[in-house]
Amino acid sequence: MVRFVRERGWPLCLAGGGHPEGHPECRDLERSIQHLEAKVDAGLDLVITQLFYDNADYFAFVERARRAGIRVPVVPGIMPITNVPQIERITRLSGNQIPPVLRTALERVRDDEQATFRVGVEYATRQCEELLRAGAPGVHFYTLNKSPATRAIFENLRRAGLVGD
Known about the structure:
Layout: H1 2-8, E1 15-18, H2 29-42, E2 46-51, H3 55-67, E3 74-78, H4 84-94, H5 100-109, H6 113-133, E4 140-141, H7 148-159
Parallel strand pairs: 1-2, 2-3, 3-4
Helix pairs in contact: 5-6, 6-7
């Protein structure tokens, strides 16, 4: 599809997906980078990652991409957790991991929707702060058509001076 758009000269900004923990159908991290390289070579302008909850996965992914010669921006994809069963289903399908410290915090609040929201917002805020301070070119939020958590995270980042109004 990227090549199709580029061959026609359509003036579009094209973003493609990247998988810091590997694609569910390809857990070989180096091979995943080769697939990403092919997408970028076809004309991607930027990469937006699949969700992840351990920033080390993002940083390692970017390092692998840079070693492979990929120079387009790699924007981290963040999905604030607001519902424990939902994120368990999503991570089971995608093969993404929930770090033990986050899993423990979520288990403590599993049946309390407001407490889950607070844990998810706090964790994602810290995650975004670290990413932005370390030079991530921005953040893409997966909201699942529910923006209150993203708005809360944005306000936290604004108060920390990491984003503008």
